[in-house]
Design brief:
With 136 residues, the protein is mainly beta. Helices cover 7% and strands 41% of the residues. The protein has one domain (8-123). Strands 1, 2, 3, 4, 5, 6 and 7 form a seven-stranded mixed sheet that branches. A two-stranded antiparallel ribbon has the order 8-9. The longest helix is centred in the first third of the chain and has 10 residues, at 12-21.
């Protein structure tokens, strides 16, 4: 089971931009869906979270309002565990932004392989045509 972490190569600015587009500010806590979060070991032996392919963040519930300030630069992910590398959609994550952005997956959260397509053909989370992956 891979338990990826956030590192300097994770492109956290893409997450901050998606949060800002969703009107999330410093101090705010929300439940949200995150589309296309990548888990990979491409930068070394340790599994990392990458936000470079992030397609969006949809706020489902505001738990605590923000103070209107800028989002923090540091990002941490807790509770994310996946079987293998790939692209994932995170559903109902708890995201807070006080001091650092924390994405927490708890009993109300789920992680599913992201649905993608290439030239209109569906592919699995690893980029293979559906049903043709050697990882299946």
């Amino acid at each position: 089971m891979l338990r990826p972490e956030v590192a300097s190569v994770s492109q956290t600015e893409r997450l901050r931009a998606a949060m800002a587009a969703g009107a999330i500010t410093h101090g705010q806590a929300v439940r949200a869906d995150i589309e296309h979060l990548e888990v990979s070991t491409k930068a070394g032996a340790m599994p990392l979270v990458y936000f470079c392919a992030l397609r969006g963040l949809r706020v489902a519930e505001t738990i605590r309002p923000g103070d209107g300030g800028p989002l923090p630069a540091d990002v941490a992910v807790a509770g994310l565990a996946v079987e293998r590398e790939g692209m994932y959609d995170v559903r109902n994550a708890l995201i807070s932004s006080n001091g650092r952005i924390e994405i927490t997956l708890d009993e109300r959260s789920s992680v599913v392989p992201a649905h993608r397509s290439v030239f209109g053909l569906p592919v699995d989370a690893w980029g293979w045509p559906t049903g043709a992956s050697p990882n299946a």
